[in-house]
Amino acid sequence: MNRFKLHLITILLILSGVNLINAQNVILSDSAVVSLLTCSPGPEVYAKFGHTAIRLIEPARGMDIVFNYGMFNFNKPNFYMKFIKGETDYELGVYETRYFLPEYQERNSSVTEQVLNLTKEEKQQLVDALFINYEPQNREYRYNFVFDNCSTRPRDKILSVIDDKVEYHSVSEQQTYRNRVGFYTGENTWTKFGIDMLLGKDADVKSTRWTSMFLPEVLSREFGAVELVAADGTKRPLVKSEKILVERKDENVSSGILQQPLIITLAILLIGVIIILAEYRQKKYCKIVDSVLLIVTGLAGIIVFYLMFFSVHPLVKSNFNILWCNPLNVIVGILLWNKKLHTFINYFQLANVFLFFGALLVFVLSIQAINVAYIPLIVLLLARSLNWIVKQSRKLKSF
Q1: Rounded to 5 degrees, what are φ and ψ at 141?
Q2: Alpha-carbon distance values, 97 to 37, 109, 125 (Å)
Q3: What is the dihedral of CA 201, 202, 208, 211, to 10 degrees?
Q4: For the chain, what are the domain ranges?
Q5: φ, ψ of residue 227 in degrees (nearest 5)
Q6: Which residues, 6 or more positions from 163, have their beta carbon under 8 angstroms from its beta carbon?
Q7: For 368-399, b where at least 16 C-beta lie within 10 A, e where not — what string?
Q8: CA gap 181, 49 in Å, rounded
Q9: Type and span of the H or E element at 68
């Protein structure tokens, strides 16, 4: 949620007249309804995977509110650095449903409501637990994209009040975390290009039924097929009914050439090959090409290195992209302009040849899934390193 909307909701809470301070004392009537709200993905990066919330309707008190675990505060000190390190604190927000739904209508996301088939006692326990969770000392939690997020929190709260055996009946193919993320970002997109750069080989492990519920739509599908089995063997569905509160309008989204990383990287490779051929014909060396390639991949490597060793984000450790995005490339990309250091750069480029071959081998052996759009870049880097070594060896022979 962006900063403007966060402040807006705060103002609306004040104006709404909902007495949330004493709401934990609410005794639910027989007509109270508790439901799971599932919001479909939106166009922004932060909304690509959808959202989940819990809705409470208590007609006896004129109450219709949502419990939203997806709120955070941009104004906290060092917010962006903490976000990169995986130390972002999200919090539970509680506000009226009439302020929740328009946000998703505005971004053209559907909102599906699944009314939960809970007993009166289970509803009361759930609502009590949610309001306790909303108390100032309890509402913050350390956000984790896969294992503790706006989808897993509602799941855990709902299941914690159910004593019956939970039977899952949905049928879905097991997929890796990377594939599940790719389903929502699209395979040949810049979002997927960036995410694949940051994810390590742990992202290629298949997610279980339980861990797959970090995605709101997966949670909704799983809950929709759940049966609760009592001690005497009687069964009841977890979801009593389902309806769409906000319809999503069909949009014609065109994907231009510039929005497809594979086409762009293939074009870069082609240009790089043409430059190499021109260098051989004219017996010249285009130093700027190597400098730019090394600096850009080095900067990407610094991010990869930082996440691998300093971030607590899941799935970013053991990242073999470090083989071709070497952080030291930044330094060498600058130093290659100094002719006195060419001997050192020769050894570095030789080491890079082995690293680039290693990256391609990782892809071939499926040690870690590598975005196919990286392959043209790795091939170009390999070609440029070999080109440097050949040119320097020819210079030595000429003396």
Answers
A1: -150, 155
A2: 10, 15, 21
A3: -130
A4: 3-172+209-246, 257-398
A5: -120, 140
A6: none
A7: bbbbebbbbbbbbbbbbbbbbbeebeeeeeee
A8: 8
A9: strand 63-71
Largest CA distance in the chain: 95
- The phi, psi pair for 233, rounded to 5°, reads 95, -10
Beta carbons of 266 and 379 less than 8 angstroms apart = no
41 pLDDT tier (thresholds 50, 70, 90): very high
| 245 burial via Cβ count (<10 Å: 0-12, 13-18, 19+) | middle
Distance of alpha carbon 18 from alpha carbon 290, whole angstroms: 62
pTM for this entry: 0.88
**CB neighbour list of residue 226: distance below 8 Å, 6 or more residues apart:** 166, 167, 168, 169, 237, 238, 239
What is the CB-side half-sphere exposure of residue 208 using CA atoms within 13 A? Answer: 4
**DSSP state string for 260-281:** -HHHHHHHHHHHHHHHHHHHHH
Number of CB atoms found within 10 A of residue 356's CB: 23
Helix H or strand E encompassing 259: none
137, 134, 129, 138: which is closest to 158 by C-alpha?
129
Correct CATH for 3-172+209-246 of 2.60.120, 3.40.50, 3.90.1720, 3.30.450: 3.90.1720
Q: Tokens standing for 265?
A: 């990287």
Residue with tokens 């559907």: 110
From CA 303, how far away is CA 198, in angstroms rounded?
8
Q: Which of 139, 9, 123, 115 is nearest to 60 (CA)?
A: 123
Q: What strand order describes the sheet that includes 235-237?
A: 165-167, 227-229, 235-237
HSE on the CB side for 328, CA within 13 Å? 9
Q: Which amino acid is at 293?
A: L
Using one digit for the tens of pLDDT, what is the confidence trace for 311-344? 988 899 999 999 999 999 999 999 999 988 988 9
For residue 43, is pLDDT > 90? no
Using alpha carbons only, what angle is made at residue 47 by residues 45 and 50, rounded to the nearest 5 degrees? 140
